[in-house]
Specification:
mainly alpha
Length: 215
Amino acid sequence: MDLNDTPPLGLRETKKRETRQLISDHATRLFIERGFEHTTIAEIADAARVAKKTVTNYFPRKEDLALDHQDEFVAALAATVTARGAGETPLSALRHAFLAAVAAQDPVAGFAGEAFTRMIADSPTLTGCLRGLHDRREEALAAALAGATGTPPGDITPRTAAALLGGVHRVLFARIQELTLSGHANPEIAEVLAREAPRAFDLLTPALAAYGRRA
């Protein structure tokens, strides 16, 4: 092939993103219509008009098709702690970040709509996967806290703090799911969480008010 016929890298990457999004969109539609457990990779490939191998190249596991923001979800709390400002504690940084996500009705925070949320709730595979993602997010947070506080390896303190902070986020995520499945729209859910989330974070203040404050 003539080198002049090779598509620019930017165009190639754009095409890959478009194909990935196309597959994801068709998969989500089929999962919602038929249920996650009853939809096959072959059916998704047919709907997207790509080869089955193309689907698995982009999404190695079937769960990846339904929960395609896993990396962002897992890294979010750790990234917030790492990027906190001078004089800010992990607790205050995570509190502000969560309230901002609520105000934005961020899907990664749980504002995914009733159809998508019910798809997850109705699937034992996806509910188990979601629990695993919460676990991984907490582990990443513990590592970030250990790095931020210079804690020696094996110290239980950052793991304990991560369990507390991660636990509040699990509760609030579940609360958003609960309200979604009860038929509440995202703006209404955001209003409820804007009132309830500060109370949840306040419960951690006695333990974590000064922990990890950045100099």
